[in-house]
């Protein structure tokens, strides 16, 4: 059946559930979030974007930064926890991760994964070079991931793994772009140890949960073979290098506390 483009789009598959997509923002129900005693309260889930922050906090703890202690709570996006009143107060955009810094008076809400990574890096003066060249290179690639990642997740990942049925046009379109990005990273990493140079930075923490886990076969079932990731040898070497870090391993296996329903 050929889709006829209407002059004005109308939302046809309306739902009244707590979760599910809607063309509107804001809270859908009242829900209190738990608040622990640690300096940071992290409300998140083990998705690539969520993993960025647990890795960062665990990397800081590996350096002995005790002020980076945090309480971690699960926001089940499948059940719509991201639309509860307290979570929307922390992040009006209703996306994970969301972080609250209780060491600030009044407490400070931080959302969007790149903003959280940058905030923590600057607060503790770690994983962000201080020289202008290193800092700018790190920021270049941090924001590259934020701009490029949706083509992999919302584009390739969605149509490859989650769409109701395989569709050639979107799969071809987003596979083409995903492989272009993988090739870019592979060429970039041919002459350097980490994304921004010889030093591990927040740009690695931002890129690895998406692209590293993709080529390691941990993101979408069957995607590594489909994308023929073995041709990206430098990218694979980097992915394994980052994966072996203790902070990364701890960031992948942390326990999420439930919130009250």
TrEMBL record:
Entry-linked PROSITE patterns: GST_CTER (PS50405), GST_NTER (PS50404)
Domain GST C-terminal: 131-261
Domain GST N-terminal residues, every copy: 38-128
InterPro entries per record: Glutathione-S-Trfase_C-like, Glutathione-S-Trfase_C_sf, Glutathione_S-Trfase, Glutathione_S-Trfase_N, Thioredoxin-like_sf
Superkingdom of origin organism: Bacteria
SUPFAM superfamilies: GST C-terminal domain-like (SSF47616), Thioredoxin-like (SSF52833)
Record Pfam families: GST_C_2 (PF13410), GST_N (PF02798)
UniProt-recorded name of the protein: GST-like protein
């Amino acid at each position: 059946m050929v889709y006829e483009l209407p002059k004005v789009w109308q939302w046809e598959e309306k739902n009244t559930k707590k979760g599910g997509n809607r063309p509107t923002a804001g809270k859908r129900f009242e829900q209190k979030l738990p608040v622990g005693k640690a300096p940071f309260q992290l409300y998140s889930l083990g998705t690539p974007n969520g993993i960025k922050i647990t890795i960062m906090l665990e990397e800081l703890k590996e350096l002995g930064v005790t002020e980076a202690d945090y309480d971690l709570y699960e926001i089940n996006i499948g059940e719509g926890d991201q639309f509860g009143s307290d979570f929307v107060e922390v992040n009006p955009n209703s996306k994970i991760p969301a972080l609250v810094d209780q060491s600030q008076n009044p407490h400070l809400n931080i959302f969007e994964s790149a903003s959280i990574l940058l905030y923590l890096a600057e607060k503790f003066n770690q994983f962000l070079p201080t020289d202008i060249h290193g800092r700018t290179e790190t920021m270049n690639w941090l924001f590259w991931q934020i701009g490029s990642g949706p083509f992999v997740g919302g584009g390739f990942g969605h149509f490859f793994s989650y769409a109701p049925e395989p569709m050639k046009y979107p799969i071809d379109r987003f596979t083409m772009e995903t492989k272009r990005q993988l090739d870019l990273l592979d060429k970039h990493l041919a002459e350097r140890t980490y994304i921004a140079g010889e030093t591990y930075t927040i740009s690695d923490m931002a890129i690895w949960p998406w692209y590293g886990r993709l080529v390691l076969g941990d993101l979408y079932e069957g995607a590594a073979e489909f994308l023929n990731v073995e041709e990206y040898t430098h990218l694979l070497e980097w992915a394994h290098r980052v994966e072996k870090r203790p902070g990364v391993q701890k960031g992948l296996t942390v326990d999420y506390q439930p919130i009250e329903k």
